[in-house]
Amino acid sequence: MDNLRYEAADTLAHAAQLIAAESGDVRVLAGGTDVLVQMHSDMIEPDLIVDIKNIPEVRTIQQEDGGWRFGAAVPGLELMDHADFCAAWPGVMDGVKLIGSVQIRGRASVGGNLCNASPAADSVPPMIAASAMATVFGPNGSREVPVQDIAVGPGKTSLEKGEIVVSFSLPPRPAHSGDAYLRFTPRTEMDIAVVGVAVNLTLDDAGICTAARVVLGAVAARALLVQEAADALIGTSVDDAAIENMIQEVRAACRPIDDKRGTIEFRTKVAGVLAERATKIALERARGA
Amino acid sequence: MAPKPGSFSTSIPYEEKKLKIVGTEPADRPDAVDKVTGRARYAADYNLPGQLIGKVLRSPHAHARVLSIDTAAAEAVPGVKAVVTRDDFPDMAVEHAASGELMINFKDVTRNMMAREKVFYDGHPVAAVAAVSESAAKKALKLIKVEYEVLPHVIDVEAAMQSDAPILHEDQFTKGVDPTPEKPSNIATRIESKLGDIEAGFDQADLVIEREFRTKPVHQGYIEPQASIANYTDGGQVEVWTSTQGHFVFRAQIAKLLQLDMSKITVTAAELGGGFGGKNNVYLEPLAVVLSRKSRRPVKMVMTRDEVFRATGPTSGTHTKVKIGVTKDGRITAGQAELNYQSGAFAGSSVPMAAITVFTRYDIENVLVVGHDVTCNRPKVAAYRAPGAPMIAFGVESVLDELAEGVGMDPVSFRLKNAAREGTQTHYGPKLGPIGFVETLESAQAHPHMQEKLGPNQGRGVATGFWFTLGKETSATLNVGEDGTVNVIMGTVDVTGGGRSALAMVVAEELGIPTEKVRVKSGDTTALGFNFMTAGSRGTAAGSMATVKASRDAIQKACEVAARIWEVETEEVVWEDGHARPASTNVGDFEPLSLADLARRAGALGGTIAGHAELDVAMGGPGFGTHIVDVEVDRQTGAVKVLRYTLVQDAGKAVYPKFIEGQFQGGAVQGIGMALNEEYIYSEKGTLENPGFLDYRVPVASDVPFINTEIVEVPNPMHPYGIRGIGEVPIIPPIAALSNAIYHATGVRLRDHPLSPPKVLAALDEAAPAIAAE
Ligand SMILES: Cc1cc2nc3c(=O)[nH]c(=O)nc-3n(C[C@H](O)[C@H](O)[C@H](O)COP(=O)(O)OP(=O)(O)OC[C@H]3O[C@@H](n4cnc5c(N)ncnc54)[C@H](O)[C@@H]3O)c2cc1C
Question: Which one of A234, B232, B421, B728 has the fewest beta carbons within 10 angstroms of its own beta carbon?
Fold first, then answer.
């Protein structure tokens, strides 16, 4: 780290150019709550840090085509202060609110949470459940990528060298939609999810589920979108029988590892418990919306 | 090992008198503002011109022979000024010494700070480097070539006790067994403590319960990592600023390990960022001194959190067995326990201390306690707040809870019926003096907490704790400035932050001046006679004995000055309310003289007013406590929520009640953390998997409720103000209290620590069919 350089980019093009010109290890810096911790613990030794926080596109929150768009580097606390966004996507906010502590959320961004590619990242399952799209800018221009395709494994993304996630778009919400995210941690905060479950539901006027997405965190190498679990809810009134079927599908989809943070058995079991609880919260929100 | 006062030790008997300052809460706390604003100087805040940064190369293996160490490439790195290995330190013979509440052996201390023949744990130091920058030092570490012959290892205590276990020390033959075995063993020592006739005791019982318990090692978790800066001058003076609970003990150890005269070494204890027993041992200090001597530059070393977890002492993981018998009407007739305690890489766990606390809260006629001190491939254990006691209290208090239920008594009445009182014969030797255990149980029973209603999946647990108050060598000097304000130099380290205030209050009480006129500071090792470390809850209890003595010495001098002014005999002057006064009207009609009046004139009347004390403080005045906790268990996830917590403890005399409450609360919170989620997790290869606060889960603020506290005051007869040590008792009951509460919430008893969600859930699932059948 003797020759570490820090550059703050003003535009996306500037950031891309800085990254392209560096032959050594480059890290994009948003809130830095992962990057700096990893540097201090010698996990990474970057030659160049490119700070993207001065680039306007990565810092704005706005309504767009009936849905929402927010910058990849918007800190969690700014999202929490945005009443309209919070009202539209309470489940995404369940995830954002769980990241670290007040101090961490003052910096931590959803883009950083996603690109750090931890299977336990808290904002990622509800973003996938929300069908969020990422706008990616790089040497070859812009592309739109579903959020579930960004992280591919622990610490690994599908981004090409020089590519930056600029912002996320969330689709317009039909009436009677609700989402929720729950995680299990031994501590009440400042902890890492042993299991996380996000559920996003839409009901028709009769209360029948017409669309659902169920996403699991921390039970596989990356967040899992479990179609079978969603199918167990779609077409039902989300009654106890449907929830029971969904729980079975969730547990069947879990592919966790045994490690210091939890056993396979515990994670699988608790994934089902949280799936039930998150579904009930999403359902209540959908009925109220 | 039982603490026995020496024949020349000092105790000043308790005197009941009206107090003006002790027991109040003056606003002034000298360390607080500087800590909050960041101006307090911790060891890592000290810097010297030209200093180098020192870093340690640590073993990646749990157990290996060190065949060779090649440092040539590391020495060639630009900026590297010194590299040291085992060859830079003299070997030490077996020689035991007290270090806090545990015993050390210099043969092992030198091997623990720098491996010699073998490495015994993941994180064991094998070399150290000093360089102009941290990056140069780290680069050099990577270039040191160590050739290891990896050996089979053993991590857990039960495995280590097996006869076919990998042996750490070929020359270790179990002590305390007759005849001494011929085969080396990981069991370093067997100890036994006996009272009455154990078999006869069980024969008298109507109900006997025997259970087995297991606990994982837990770390003290102090926020400040170990840090030291050493300067070995060309003139042969050695200065060390460090993070320690006992700078005099550290000076002695540095002198021994490096074979230097004590007089050439000055150790300064920096402001302490938490110790809890974990800063009773040298780790970096000797390395920094030798690196400084070799490089002829000051050397600063600061551990990373990873190093703190891998290489500084946690407390023992344990395996224990507890068997207790009672009569139908709830009288305990016999208590038996086996304590198998990990000592880590080298012998010397807390098992001797733990063994004497096992049943000491209760009046039991027949007792048998057997303890084993067991080496295994983990860092050498260190003291941790009432070292060894929480783990065995877990066992004893759980079994008592079962017995109480078995004989149909509520947990507090059952304990009251069997409680130790003044005159109770302990199983380790002495009879107890006046103690406040019964008072804590009675206050707990009467506490409004006991009336709170419990909902579904909620339960209430009770448990108790006992610990000693250590005395030992303690010195203090008191200098009265020309303006009558007072500086006190203390030699114990203020480990709590409130220690300085407490001592200032005692001095102010003695001298009859306001507390804010007294400033207490820790002196370096050249300023005072020897001081034992701040351990065994002795900081305020023993420290105040020395400051009382020093105050009375200064008062004597002040009276001499008054006598000279009045031209009377010193015996004709008395000290009252902060003034020298004529002893009677016969002496003459003189206006009283304040300390300030006297101090101003003392220079020309014999010299500065000062007092000092160098004591071996008599030990005594143990503390007892009773805890009540309510929990709610999530039956689907195994999560335990602590709803309410109340702690009652005998403080003897609370010098500054809020600080006592703070100690009670801190101890309880550490105990809750220890109980619920803290544990060392090792891989198959014997490497530590969770060396950081992310996965070593100490509780955060939102994990614990407000801790209600109640102070009981039964004066310690051996202390002028009746003060008892209070720092350690509060950490003892929580594991047991929580486990009992979980049982009352769910019907399931947990005997395998930590009481973490996966363990609780597994136990609930296992018990579900049985409970459903009922
Ligand atoms: C004490 C503490 C507690 C924490 N608790 C939680 C928790 O409860 N839950 C949780 O999920 N996480 C937690 N974290 C992790 C971290 O805070 C989150 O992952 C956070 O969202 C990261 O965002 P950031 O903006 O700080 O990312 P940064 O650290 O700036 O970046 C993270 C990674 O993403 C890359 N990156 C950042 N932005 C972009 C971009 N726009 N395009 C491409 N690459 C990018 C960086 O190069 C880096 O590799 C915690 C961290 C700490 C220190």
Answer: B421
- A26, A58, A113, A195, best to mutate for ligand 1 pocket (most atoms within 8 Å of CB): A113
The residue among A102, A118, A269, A280 with the most chain B CBs within 10 A of its CB, best to mutate, is: A269
B167-193 pLDDT, tens digit per residue, is 999 999 999 999 999 999 999 999 999
Same domain, A78 and A156: yes
Overall average pLDDT of the B206-223 stretch:
98
A32 touches ligand 1 (CB under 6 Å): yes
- Domain CATH code at residue A18: 3.30.43
A62 shares a domain with A164: yes
pLDDT band at B31 (very low <50, low <70, confident <90, very high): confident
Task: Find the domain containing A63 and state its range.
Answer: 58-170
Interface check for A251 against chain B (CB to CB < 8 A): the answer is no
Ligand 1 site, residue A230, Cβ cutoff 6 A: no
Q: What is the pLDDT of residue A161?
A: 87
- As a whole-number percent, the residues of chain B with pLDDT over 90 amount to 95
DSSP tag of B426: P
Same domain, A155 and A104: yes
What does the pLDDT read at residue B312?
A: 97
List of chain A residues with pLDDT < 70 = 1-2
Domain B388-427+435-469+620-767, CATH number (from 3.40.640.10, 3.30.365.10, 3.40.50.720, 3.40.50.1820): 3.30.365.10
Report the distance separating Cα A65 and Cα B236, nearest Å: 77
Cα A97 to Cα A106, A123, A197, B273, B442, distances in angstroms: 11, 9, 15, 31, 45
Q: pLDDT band for position B612 (50/70/90)? A: very high
Chain A residue with minimum CA distance to B754: A186
> Among A99, A114, A191, which residue has the most ligand 1 atoms within 8 Å of its CB, making it the best to mutate?
A99
One of 3.30.365.10, 3.90.550.10, 3.30.70.1230, 1.10.260.40 is the CATH number of B30-40+470-617, namely: 3.30.365.10
pLDDT on residue B3: 47
Q: Burial level of A145, CB count in 10 A (0-12/13-18/19+)?
A: middle
Q: Convert B326-337 to b/e letters by CB count within 10 Å (16 or more is b).
A: beeebbbbbbbb
User: What's the pLDDT at B1?
Assistant: 39
Rounded Cα gap, residues B476 and B546, in angstroms: 6
Domain span(s) for CATH 3.30.365.10 in chain B? 30-40+470-617, 388-427+435-469+620-767
**Cβ contacts of residue B460 below 8 Å, gap of 6+?**
B450, B454, B628, B629, B630, B741, B744
Tally of domains in chain A: 3
